[in-house]
């Protein structure tokens, strides 16, 4: 069984063919999916979609690349939605939240304010976080040290070994996906090879971050086993061993996954 811990499979992106996306995933034994929101405008859609897919869980949050268009009252909406979701076995935590220092023109101060506000919510409600961390490893770690959410995932991790150790010490796992399949991604592949077994979860971020064999095309969870094969070879593990490690890790940091049958 494979768990795709980061999949943007919302109705606006996949619409009528999302059933095909899920079916193709199941055919290659991908049976768990984490569906993160990106803003208050799609909280209901993500929640509804997770309830329509066996094995799926959802996260609610305001993505840093959507913060510029977010309103302050969206944080109140998020709090209200968390309250309504706390008894929902498919509710996995807050996500996708975080910081983006790569895309030009984003309001950094507003990003930080919204990120810290959402970390505070995660702490107050004792729920995990799924985080976007792009060119922002140290500022994200600073927020985690202040608010200390219970657990979570640094999605599409691309930091140093030292930064990885800091995330792990804060009960986070590190997400690895399609970018690790590129032979030129030397640092990522060093990380995928050298991190301890409790560090890593697998993800696609579909439809984004496609692996090398479909570069610049739409990504989907059906590619997760082949991504895993690349990482297993780097780590000199069998696919079964890698599956067992990453399944344990994903369920540890996102306990909602363990409740999905």
How much is the radius of gyration in Å? 17 Å
Give the overall pLDDT as a whole number.
95
Named CATH architecture: Alpha-Beta Barrel
Spatial ordering of strands, largest sheet: 1-2-3-4-5-6-7-8
CATH topology: TIM Barrel
Structural class: alpha/beta
CATH superfamily: Metal-dependent hydrolases
Largest sheet: 8 strands, parallel
**SSE succession:** EHHEHEHEHEHEHEHEHH
Q: What distance separates the N and C termini? A: 12 Å
CATH class: Alpha Beta
Note the overall shape.
Answer: globular
Number of strands: 8
Q: What percent strand?
A: 15-25%
Q: Unreliable segments (pLDDT under 50, ≥5 consecutive)?
A: none
Number of helices: 10
How many domain regions? 1
DSSP helix fraction: 40-55%
What topology emerges from the helices and strands here?
Elements: E1 2-4, H1 11-14, H2 18-27, E2 30-36, H3 43-52, E3 56-60, H4 73-85, E4 91-100, H5 108-125, E5 129-134, H6 137-147, E6 152-155, H7 161-169, E7 172-176, H8 186-194, E8 200-202, H9 224-235, H10 239-253
Parallel strand pairs: 1-2, 2-3, 3-4, 4-5, 5-6, 6-7, 7-8
Helix pairs in contact: 4-5, 5-6, 9-10
């Amino acid at each position: 069984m494979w768990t795709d811990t980061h999949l943007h499979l919302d109705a606006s992106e996949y619409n009528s063919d999302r059933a095909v996306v899920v079916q193709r995933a199941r055919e290659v034994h991908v049976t768990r999916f984490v569906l993160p929101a990106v803003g208050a405008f799609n909280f209901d859609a993500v929640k509804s979609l997770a309830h329509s897919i066996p094995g799926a869980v959802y996260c609610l949050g305001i993505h840093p690349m959507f913060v510029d268009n977010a309103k302050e009252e969206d944080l109140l909406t998020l709090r209200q939605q968390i309250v309504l979701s706390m008894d929902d076995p498919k509710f996995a935590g807050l996500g996708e939240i975080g910081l983006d220092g790569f895309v030009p023109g984003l309001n950094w101060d507003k990003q930080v304010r919204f990120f810290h506000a959402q970390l505070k919510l995660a702490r107050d409600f004792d729920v995990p976080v799924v985080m976007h961390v792009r060119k922002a490893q140290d500022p994200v770690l600073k927020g985690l040290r202040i608010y200390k959410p219970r657990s979570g995932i640094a999605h599409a991790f691309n930091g140093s070994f030292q930064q990885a150790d800091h995330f792990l010490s804060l009960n986070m796992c590190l997400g690895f996906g399609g970018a690790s399949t590129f032979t030129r991604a030397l640092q990522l592949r060093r990380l995928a090879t050298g991190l301890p077994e409790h560090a890593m979860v697998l993800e696609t971020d579909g439809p984004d971050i496609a692996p090398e064999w479909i570069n610049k095309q739409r990504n989907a969870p059906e590619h997760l086993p082949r991504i895993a094969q690349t990482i297993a070879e780097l780590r000199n593990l069998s696919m079964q061993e890698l599956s067992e490690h990453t399944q344990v890790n994903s369920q540890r940091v996102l306990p909602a996954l363990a409740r999905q049958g």
